[in-house]
UniProtKB/TrEMBL annotation:
Heterotetramer; composed of 2 small (MOCS2A) and 2 large (MOCS2B) subunits. It comes from Ephemerocybe angulata. Transmembrane segments: none annotated. Belongs to the MoaD family. MOCS2A subfamily. Acts as a sulfur carrier required for molybdopterin biosynthesis. Component of the molybdopterin synthase complex that catalyzes the conversion of precursor Z into molybdopterin by mediating the incorporation of 2 sulfur atoms into precursor Z to generate a dithiolene group. In the complex, serves as sulfur donor by being thiocarboxylated (-COSH) at its C-terminus by UBA4. After interaction with MOCS2B, the sulfur is then transferred to precursor Z to form molybdopterin. GO terms for biological process: Mo-molybdopterin cofactor biosynthetic process. The keyword Magnesium does not apply. This is Molybdopterin synthase sulfur carrier subunit. The modification 1-thioglycine is found at residue 90.
Length: 90
């Protein structure tokens, strides 16, 4: 049996840093909290410039729903997680 996976969508500076717009990421059978995902993504992309800082300042969306408390949301597999980077505009 294969491990559960999630789909991560990258936008703006997160996409630039990783060179990706999407990737499939395996997660533990027991699940993992959304707040732990930044550490996993940073480890998967050790050469991505400033990725940790980008993820730390970003918000998260799971299955098109903004998440206010990522430490309370447990990913089980099958979710689509978007990294929503801060934007500046004028």
């Amino acid at each position: 049996m294969s491990r559960p996976t999630i789909t991560v969508l990258y936008f703006a500076s997160a996409s630039t840093a990783t060179g990706l717009t999407t990737e499939t990421v395996p997660i533990p059978e027991s699940g993992q909290t959304l707040s732990e995902l930044a550490t996993i993504l940073t480890a998967r992309h050790p050469n991505a410039s400033n990725l940790k800082e980008i993820l730390d300042s970003s918000q998260w969306s799971v299955d098109c729903e903004m998440i206010d408390e990522p430490e309370k949301l447990v990913l089980k597999g099958g979710e689509e997680v978007a990294v929503i980077c801060p934007v500046s505009g004028g």
